Amino acid sequence: MAARVTVLLTSPRTAPGLLSFPAWERLRAADAVLAADPDPAWQEAFSQAGVSLEDVSGVPVALRAGRLVEEAADGRELVWWGSEDGDPGLTDALAEHLSRRAVASRPPEVEVLTGSYDMPGARLLDLVAVMDTLRSPGGCPWDAEQTHTSLLPYLLEEAHEVIEAVESDDAAHLEEELGDLLLQVVFHARVAQDGYGFGIDEVAAGIVAKLIRRHPHVFSAAGSSSSAAEVEETWEMLKATEKAGRSGFEGIPATLPALARAQKMLGRLSRAGVDVDVAVEKASQGDELAAALLRVVVLARASGADAEASLRAALGRLVPPEQ
Q1: What whole-number distance in Å separates Cα of residue 5 and Cα of residue 93?
Q2: Average pLDDT over residues 187-210
Q3: Which keywords annotate this record (predicted)?
Q4: Which end of the chain, C or N, has fewer beta carbons within 10 A?
Q5: What pLDDT is stored for residue 150 in this prediction?
Q6: Domain ranges (residues) in the chain
Q7: What's the rounded Cα separation, in Å, for the pair 95 and 61?
Q8: Could you report the per-residue pLDDT of 85-109, keeping only the tens digit for each?
């Protein structure tokens, strides 16, 4: 006789039907499988697998625990299908019933079995679900009325706060700010789903395809690379091929800070074989200050430095005036 209660735990982020082999074995062998308010999609998966799932959500927790213990004690094998909320109170109720049963006779065995685990990145599904709730009818009125344009100040602010967290070498701050920036990406994707017909899945699919395409040394059997410099060269070559037909400085955002924008523009001129010194003189049009600033950017590029980051670091070292 089995005389066993199995509490089966699963990740709420696991697709219906995706369980470990031991979990399915236990479910199929059980005399009864009980659950409280199970997901209809899981009920369908169980039905297709020939497993009968009984919903006891209307039964008080103490009585659920009592039934599990008493029926298992009679030599049956019962499985409790864990709920997303962790079934508050069930563990304590089981312990109480097992203690009472132990006074009169041997109590049934109780085993906790994990049937599925979160995959890396699974919590991103929670963020997408929360954002969907906020933007859907009955959600948050403020979130529902936001547009790509209204969200731009937050996107810019969060990006700068990530930069600040990185440069301050504050791990806890960086973790928080990366979350705030990620929210902006998911928020924009949800807004796009309403307005343009694409959502976070299309956004993710696009960047995955780009990463694989631009890393042939990793994802292609024929590819190889011996150094970071070679990788960068391959990246730029592939990028140029993808962007064939792009003219001038197309693709360099006009909203970039001036130093960062200058570095990108001068970099594109250099890769195109243009004499950067001549280009700087022409762009300065006799303005010595402009010429000096551009030459600083040229110097930064030549030394492999980030002009914007260097200036930001210097500003952080300035000593404020005494009050």
Answers
A1: 13
A2: 96
A3: Hydrolase
A4: C
A5: 97
A6: 4-114, 120-213, 246-317
A7: 12
A8: 889 999 999 999 999 887 777 889 9
